[in-house]
Amino acid sequence: MRILIPFTGVSHTELLLSTKHLAMMLKAGVPLFEALEALAEASRGKLAKVFAAVQKKVEQGEQLSRALAVYPDIFPSFYVKLVAIGESSGTLSQNLQEIVTYLAREQELRSRIRGAMMYPVLVLVVFVLVFMAVAMFVLPNLTRVFRVLHGDIPFMTQVVIAIADFFKAYGSIAVPAFGFAMLAFWVLLMQPFIHPVTHRMFLSIPLIGNIARQVSIARFSRNLSLLLSAGISLHEALTIASNAATNVVYQNAIKKVAVPVMQGEGLAAGLLAHPSLFPGFFVRIVSVGERSGKLDEALAFIASFYDQEVEATTQNLTTLLEPLLLVVVAIFVGGFALAVITPIYEITGQLRR
């Protein structure tokens, strides 16, 4: 079983910028092997080595598409296919520009989602760090005061004392262990063998599942539209689009849709078998596109529509999460304040007697 290690691959931004530079150089008339050499010198890390190897193969007479196909973890199948079509038709720079447009829209989609999740994640991280700092450095001093109380200690204060005792005894182990557990959990979520479970789970979560569906449909529509407009057959385009899908549930569904299409049925008919993944609106637009002979344009419209839906939904999610997080933080802060103030008030009352 292959284990994926974070931060060892090529980022989406790096691929976008490299493809953009390559398209610009070819459009300006720079020979392909010289453009690849320039990319190898300008790139860093793994991508620099990849372009250097690709440049050598092209210089030896191999086609660019075949040289890129050796690195499927960097250059997806739709990327390689469009490059191959560009080579055979003499439109390589134009096809690369189409890829740049596709990757740029994908980048915008990712940025919207990350931007929507940035605030709640930041609030949670700051809250956890502040809580740990208070538990390790503030609570131990307060517990010395609480233990001089005569009589019953309030329940909330007992909880605070227990937390302080725990961090005093195990804090040097618990904090690194918590950090390592979070990192291990994140790495686990990135592994392909767990994706069938996690991707299906994400689709079932309210709001988040809706965003995941919208993102998957937008990506599928954009990819399929790009491939069809390049002259690729529908069945082959579906096969390539399934490999480009990042959600395993959608990936498997698209592969199933390709089967009846290969047997002569229309795309809309295949999509109807998966109503939970492809809504009626989507299927109707696809059906209209098939009847009019403009399926690629219909899919481009759908991609644009769902891009806007993702933006609206992520904004709604952010609007919902902001007050919810504030309420949760307020409850914890208020509980801690009561746990500290109540016994201090009792001590003050005892001293007055």
UniProtKB/TrEMBL annotation:
<protein>
    <recommendedName>
        <fullName>Type II secretion system protein GspF domain-containing protein</fullName>
    </recommendedName>
</protein>
<keyword id="KW-1133">Transmembrane helix</keyword>
<dbReference type="InterPro" id="IPR018076">
    <property type="entry name" value="T2SS_GspF_dom"/>
</dbReference>
<dbReference type="Pfam" id="PF00482">
    <property type="entry name" value="T2SSF"/>
</dbReference>
<dbReference type="InterPro" id="IPR003004">
    <property type="entry name" value="GspF/PilC"/>
</dbReference>
<keyword id="KW-0472">Membrane</keyword>
<feature type="domain" description="Type II secretion system protein GspF">
    <location>
        <begin position="20"/>
        <end position="140"/>
    </location>
</feature>
<feature type="transmembrane region" description="Helical">
    <location>
        <begin position="324"/>
        <end position="345"/>
    </location>
</feature>
<dbReference type="GO" id="GO:0015628">
    <property type="term" value="P:protein secretion by the type II secretion system"/>
</dbReference>
<dbReference type="GO" id="GO:0005886">
    <property type="term" value="C:plasma membrane"/>
</dbReference>
<keyword id="KW-1003">Cell membrane</keyword>
<feature type="domain" description="Type II secretion system protein GspF">
    <location>
        <begin position="220"/>
        <end position="343"/>
    </location>
</feature>
<comment type="similarity">
    <text>Belongs to the GSP F family.</text>
</comment>
<dbReference type="InterPro" id="IPR042094">
    <property type="entry name" value="T2SS_GspF_sf"/>
</dbReference>
<feature type="transmembrane region" description="Helical">
    <location>
        <begin position="174"/>
        <end position="194"/>
    </location>
</feature>
<keyword id="KW-0997">Cell inner membrane</keyword>
<feature type="transmembrane region" description="Helical">
    <location>
        <begin position="117"/>
        <end position="139"/>
    </location>
</feature>
<keyword id="KW-0812">Transmembrane</keyword>
